[in-house]
Amino acid sequence: MTDIGVNLTDRSFAEDLDAVLARATEAGVSTLIVTGTSVTGTDAARALCQSRPGQLYFTAGVHPHHARDYSHAAHQQLRLLARHHACVAIGETGLDFNRNFSSQDEQMAAFEQQVELAIETGLPLFLHERDAHPQQLAILKRHRDSISRAVAHCFTGSEAELQGYLELDLYIGLTGWICDERRGSHLLPLIRDIPADRLLLETDAPYLLPRDIRPKPKSGRNEPCHLPHIAERVALATGEPIETLRARLHANSQTFFNLGGR
């Protein structure tokens, strides 16, 4: 399997990263995409991937929380990082009007520039969005014909929001949110609406530990090794044999990130 979004540069993994990766491999999670959320974080992801070629890849981007730091120099640094052979997407980028750690104008400007970088490089977009669906959709619509591929990372939205993304032929990334009966149950019937070749799975570790996982890790930290648990919940929702589903998800990931051509 491929975990399409994992924050391995998070400090919670600093002490036992080798063990985390070993558990992932044992669970059948053979490929991990390390998320870049700032220029510094992207560079750290690049360094991490260089030490484990063929297993780890990374995305190059500035999260909307950090959009205020998006300068001409930052854009040039991202452009250089995006040329690295292990870079497979631009992002995490998008809009987050929930917390507004950066102003909405700063977020939209940074997002537009990263969309342009994705168009320039031909790399797909790894998208974040929270409480800004109409604005994000409008930007994507303007550029969609020039964007190679895009995934709505950690999708937790409504049926209407899902259809908005699917109308633009986006991939949909699901996380352990679907294992949370308090907040994620509305997603389960929507899974059948996602085309078979557009579904991707991720842990977003160390965040979003599946609520129903047993036994619960004492640390409360999520790990890539829990990806098969999320896949099992998807299989229950779709009625698809788990091995068939896992093979399809892995193939979708290979296509989206063009891993077969690397």
TrEMBL record:
- Positions of a divalent metal cation 2 binding: 128, 153
- Cite the binding residues for a divalent metal cation 1: 92, 204
Keyword annotations for this protein?
A: Cytoplasm, Exonuclease, Hydrolase, Magnesium, Metal-binding, Nuclease
Q: Which SUPFAM superfamilies match?
A: Metallo-dependent hydrolases
Q: What is the lineage of its organism?
A: Bacteria, Pseudomonadati, Pseudomonadota, Gammaproteobacteria, Oceanospirillales
Superkingdom assignment: Bacteria
Q: Which InterPro entries match?
A: DNase_TatD-rel_CS, Metal_Hydrolase, TatD-like, TatD-type_Hydrolase
Question: Which PANTHER family does this UniProt record tie to the protein?
Answer: DEOXYRIBONUCLEASE TATDN1, TATD FAMILY DEOXYRIBONUCLEASE
Q: Which GO terms describe its molecular function?
A: exonuclease activity; metal ion binding
Look up and give the organism this protein is from: Marinobacterium aestuarii
Pfam families for this protein: TatD_DNase (PF01026)
Its recorded name reads Hydrolase TatD
